[in-house]
Structure formats: structure tokens, C-alpha cells
Design a protein that fits this description.
alpha/beta, Rossmann fold, ten-stranded mixed sheet, 18 helices, PIN_dom, RNA binding
Length: 624
């Protein structure tokens, strides 16, 4: 008897199993070179299926040496094009032709492959894939009741994060490091379990990285060359909560059931955001709402009748399009991080779907500010009307988000009325922040008393900055500002700048006053009791104009993108710097983690910076 196996039965070891049970004892096993090439390609790509298939070929060679079977390799090795097209059936077609030419039994565990072979009149033996009885994975033995994640790496001592939500500690959980053979065994077991267990699936498989969802565990398996050694990271939720376990439970339940809402669930990593999202999802599902999730990877622990979706064809936008056909009442989006995520969230919300998005943020207001620049300002309250901030597993803050046309807090002129997004404390109703456009820029103004013990309110700080910016665009020398009230200020400039700042008949300073809604008194530095030559003085804000400070500064080349002007800064991450053009002050900013300052295009500052770039003025960054 001649038997031609395909790749599927070689990978899962069914050929040797059929020999051992006597079915093919004494047969001639003809392994196509196409199978060998496909297994080799998979092994070179770091896939365990390739290695498993090569091990099966070695078992067949051993049985041939023992005289149990005859073993031969047939056909020609396919070219790279055929191997790359294996998923489209090219390799399968080659193997079927070899079985037909040799009048052999075609052995496969691929149902589609078997049906095609039967249609062509080939003698087919379709076997079910080998399924092992799965118990506890080796990696599961490292978990205790208070373990959130286990971290294993070849050559390193096992560690875990243990404790309670908000109080996790990264601790050593064994005495000896794991060797590479043991780690390889663990990794192979995890990947096999994902394929064989009904509660397991392979979420992501790339060269060097596999992400598995197995029961309650999300497990990432990294291999060289992607990582410098085999590494396994297994994570599971340590608490399944009910919405009634949280503060504001009754109020939030009433709010969520009243109508579909746009909610951002925010907090720092490990604070319990996803745990809270799970509780809300299950509550909504129990109250006659159709609930779906959008996750990558899928690891929320939700009721069985809540369908969990991931990226469709590599895109959450495609997932959203599909969900709009399904029309859920609520969708849980875990996690919303990139601009594309926020845009998808907004599109679904504006289509009428209730949305709960999980967002990393260290303050409740930071979650809402992520929408600024990504969603039209006036649309933000329609996209998000509730912000829930989680800290140490508890609901710490809830904000109610609305919009109204009004004069912003701290301004007095009626003609300064504009659309204002108001952020109120959910429990007390007390206003906490306002977001609006001020002199062509979007600003977020805290309405509490000054932070860090200062005496300035948020609107005062912004007003001073905008006055300085406006006057510096006119004056050539040093500028400082003192606010005398909510709508009055004194500006001190050099003697030579008085006439240019005031303008003919006071017209220029009146234009500035009209734009800002603030009465401005222009004086010389000699009239400033706090002024000291070469210094901005105590209680003033301001900085040097042309040649100010005599600092050479760091020469930089800004990059203009579709949304921002990016000013690269060498070092000084987290520090406050001045940006100047031809040593003329433009603005002050804080250097971000990426070693750069970003200015939103369309703002007045960005326009000045773009003009300086257009005229090829040297742009420099100055530190204290």
C-alpha cells in the first residue's frame, strides 16, 4: 500500500500514530518534497508547526530503519512563489497530484483538502486532528490567588506581579533560573493548547511573537530574533467585580440605562480600568442591552453572550463598520490609544452606538483632552458625556461633560460669549474645568483655585500667556505682564516699543484688547516696581526679546506635519525651554518624552513659527 500524507497530518503526528496502531504497518509512506519545503519554511519563520512536522519526519525515519514501513520522498521541491502561496492551496494541489499519479491513499486531517481529493476521484483517508486531554498548563502553576501576571524568561529567575489592585509588587517567585529547554517546552505547550482547547485561540502570530488567549489567561510568547531569549508573559484578571461594588454605583447605573452614553474609563496602568469595564458590560447585558466588545487582544472577562471582536483584516475601522451592521446598544472599546482608535470611537458614537472606551490617563481631565485635536471641539460632548477615573480599583472621580454658549469663567465682556465645554463633578455638580477657544487656540482652564499653592487661576495664566504673545509680536524688546483683575492688565515694554505697541491713535492696542477681551495699560519698564535690568522680575511673566539673555541656544530644524510643527530638542526631556527665531522669542514649552516640542498647526504660535521657517530664520531652543 502506498500512502501520501499532506502537511496537516505530518504536523499533528497522525502518520506515525496510524503506523503504530497497525493501519499502515508495512506500507510505503511517500512524503512529498512539497511537504518538507513547507515545514522548513515554517520552522525558519519560528512557527512551532514547522518544528513539530520535522520531528514527525524523524519518527517516520526511525520506523523505516526498524523495518516497520518503507519511506521515500517524492516529487520536486516547489519554488518560493508556490511556498508563499501555500495558504491559497498551491502546495495542497501539488500533493494531491502526487497521490493521484501513484495511485496512493491520500492521508489528510484537512476537511477541505479531503473533499477536494474525493471530488477528483482520489482514495482519501481523512483523520481527525490529534487532540490531547488538557489539564493545567505549566505556566498556570506559578499563579496564586493574588497573582496578576507571571514573567518567565530563559536564563532568568521567574517573577510575578502580586498583590491587590493598586498595590501590586513585582516579586521573585522561584530560586533558580529557567533553562532554554524548559522555556521551549512551556512555549510549545501553550501554543498547542491554544489550538486544541475550545476556550483557546491564537490572537496574533508573527515571526518571533505569538499572543494566545487561553481560558482566563492572555499569554505572550516571544522568541529570538524578536527577543534576546525565549520569554513568556501570562496575565489574568485577579478580580471579577460587580458594578454595585463601586462608589456612585446607583447614579452610574441610572445614567447608563437612561440612554446610550459616551463614556471614557480612565486611569493609570494596573488601576483596574478593565475590571470596571467588565462589570459595566455585564450589568448592561443583564439589563436588556445588546453589548459587544472591540479588543486587541481579547482578554476582557465578560458574560458568554457578549461577543468579543478584534481587528478585522488588521483594522479596527473594519471592525466598527461590521458592528454598525450588527447595531449593538453598547460597545466596550479596550483600549483607546492611537488617533485611529479615537476616530473609530467617535464615528461609532456619532452613529448612535453607546460607547465605553478604556483610556490610559493619570488624571480624569487628561482622558478628555486626548480628544482635543482628534475630534472637532464642538462635537466632544456628543462623543463623550461621562468620564470615570479609576484609582487603586475604586471609582475616584466622575465628570459630567456638557456644552453651552456662554462667556468663559473669568472673562466679563458679553461679546466674548462662545461655545464652552463644561466639565462638572458628577456628584456635586460643581464646575471643574472649561474647554474653549481663546485667541484661536484651544485651552483647558481649571476652575479651582490655583494649583500648587499659587495665586493665579487657570484663566489668569492663559490670559497672561496670550497677552505676552500678542505684545511680543509687536514689540522688539523685553515684555512683562501683570494682571490687575479678571479683565485688566498692565504691560511693560521698552521705551522704544511704546509707540509701536500703542499704535496710531491707540488703534493697535485696542485691536489686541478687542481680541482678548481685556483692558491693557501700556507702560515702560521704569514704571514697573518689580523690574530689574536683564530680568523679568518677581511676579512678572515674560522673557527676553531679540538677543534676550545672550544665550546661544541649541539650533534645531522643525518638521511640519499635517497636524503639528515638531521641534526636535536634544536632551532636556521634561524641562521648560524657550523657542526663538533669529533669537526673537516665540513661545515657551515643555519638552515631551520623545525629545520634542509639538505645536498644533492653525494656532497663532504655529503661524509665527511657520513664517519664521519660511523665511529660513534660524530656530533655536534655549534653556535656563
Amino acid at each position: 500500500m502506498n500512502v501520501v500524507p499532506d502537511t496537516s497530518v505530518v504536523v499533528d503526528g497522525r502518520v506515525s500514530a496510524k503506523i503504530d496502531d497497525g493501519t499502515y504497518q508495512g506500507a510505503t509512506i511517500m512524503v512529498p518534497e512539497a511537504v518538507v519545503a513547507e515545514l522548513e519554511a515554517q520552522a525558519n519563520a519560528g512557527h512551532d508547526t514547522g518544528w513539530a512536522g520535522l520531528e514527525e519526519l524523524q519518527r517516520l525515519a526511525e520506523r523505516a530503519d526498524d523495518g516497520v514501513i518503507e519511506l521515500s520522498y517524492i516529487g520536486e521541491r516547489p519554488d518560493d512563489v508556490a511556498i508563499d502561496a501555500a495558504s491559497e492551496g498551491e502546495i495542497d494541489a501539488l500533493i494531491r497530484e502526487l497521490a493521484e499519479d501513484r495511485d496512493a491513499v491520500f492521508l489528510t486531517s484537512d476537511v477541505v483538502q479531503g473533499e477536494v481529493a474525493k471530488a477528483k476521484g482520489i482514495d482519501v483517508d481523512v483523520v481527525s486532528p490529534e487532540v490531547e486531554e488538557l489539564g493545567t498548563l505549566n505556566v498556570e502553576t506559578y499563579f496564586t490567588e493574588d497573582t496578576m501576571s507571571v514573567h518567565l524568561k530563559a536564563g532568568a529567575v521567574p517573577k510575578a506581579k502580586r498583590g491587590e489592585i493598586g498595590d501590586m509588587h513585582y516579586v521573585q517567585i522561584a530560586d533558580d533560573p529557567l533553562d532554554e529547554a524548559t522555556m521551549d517546552e512551556y512555549a510549545t505547550e501553550i501554543l498547542n493548547a491554544a489550538k486544541e482547547e475550545s476556550d483557546g485561540f491564537l490572537e496574533l502570530s508573527k515571526t518571533g511573537m505569538d499572543i494566545v488567549q487561553f481560558r482566563d489567561y492572555r499569554i505572550a510568547v516571544a522568541r529570538p530574533p524578536f527577543s534576546d531569549g525565549i520569554e513568556i508573559t501570562a496575565v489574568r484578571p485577579i478580580a471579577l467585580t460587580d458594578i454595585d461594588d463601586y462608589d456612585f454605583a446607583e447614579e452610574l447605573k441610572e445614567r447608563l440605562l437612561e440612554r446610550q452614553r459616551g463614556v471614557l474609563i480612565s486611569g493609570s496602568p494596573g488601576a483596574g480600568k478593565s475590571t470596571f469595564a467588565q462589570a459595566v458590560a455585564n450589568y448592561l447585558n443583564d439589563h436588556d442591552f445588546s453589548v459587544k466588545t472591540m479588543e486587541k487582544p481579547r482578554d476582557l472577562q465578560v458574560d458568554a453572550d457578549i461577543t468579543q471582536y478584534t481587528e478585522l483584516d488588521g483594522s479596527m475601522a473594519n471592525t466598527a463598520d461590521s458592528l454598525l451592521m450588527v447595531r449593538p446598544d453598547y460597545t466596550i472599546y479596550d483600549e483607546v490609544r492611537k488617533t485611529d482608535d479615537f476616530e473609530v470611537f467617535a464615528d461609532m458614537r456619532l452613529a448612535g452606538v453607546g460607547m465605553l472606551g478604556v483610556v490610559h490617563a493619570t488624571r480624569a481631565i487628561d482622558a478628555l483632552q486626548r480628544l482635543v485635536g482628534r475630534v472637532e471641539l464642538g462635537m466632544i460632548p456628543q462623543v463623550v458625556d461621562t468620564v470615570v477615573y479609576i484609582e487603586a480599583g475604586e471609582v475616584d472621580t466622575v465628570y459630567d461633560v456638557n456644552t453651552e454658549v456662554k462667556v468663559p469663567h473669568g472673562l466679563t465682556e458679553e461679546d466674548l460669549a462662545r461655545p464652552v465645554i463644561t466639565i462638572n463633578d458628577f456628584e456635586s455638580g460643581e464646575p471643574k474645568y472649561e474647554i474653549y477657544t481663546f485667541n484661536r487656540q484651544v485651552v483647558t482652564v481649571p476652575l479651582d483655585d490655583a494649583e500648587d499653592g499659587g495665586s493665579e487661576t487657570g484663566v489668569n495664566r492663559i490670559a497672561k500667556q496670550e497677552i505676552e504673545r500678542e505684545i511680543r509680536s509687536i514689540a522688539r524688546g523685553h515684555v512683562s505682564v501683570q494682571l490687575k483683575g479678571q479683565n485688566t492688565a498692565v504691560v511693560y515694554v521698552d521705551d522704544d516699543d511704546i509707540s509701536s505697541v500703542i499704535g496710531k491713535g491707540g488703534g493697535r492696542i485696542q485691536d489686541v484688547e478687542n481680541r482678548l477681551g481685556i483692558d491693557i495699560d501700556v507702560r515702560t519698564h521704569d514704571e514697573n516696581p518689580h523690574y530689574e535690568t536683564g530680568s523679568s522680575g518677581s511676579g512678572d511673566s515674560g522673557s527676553s526679546g531679540r538677543g534676550g539673555g545672550g544665550s546661544t541656544g541649541q539650533l534645531t530644524e522643525p518638521e511640519i506635519t499635517s497636524r503639528h510643527i515638531v521641534v526636535p530638542v536634544d536632551g532636556h526631556v521634561g524641562e521648560t525651554v524657550e523657542v526663538r527665531a533669529e533669537d526673537e522669542y516665540l513661545f515657551t514649552a515643555t519638552v515631551g518624552r520623545g525629545g520634542e516640542v509639538q505645536v498644533s498647526r492653525g494656532s497663532a504660535i504655529a503661524e509665527e513659527l511657520e513664517r519664521a521657517i519660511d523665511r529660513k530664520a534660524p530656530i533655536t531652543v534655549h534653556t535656563d
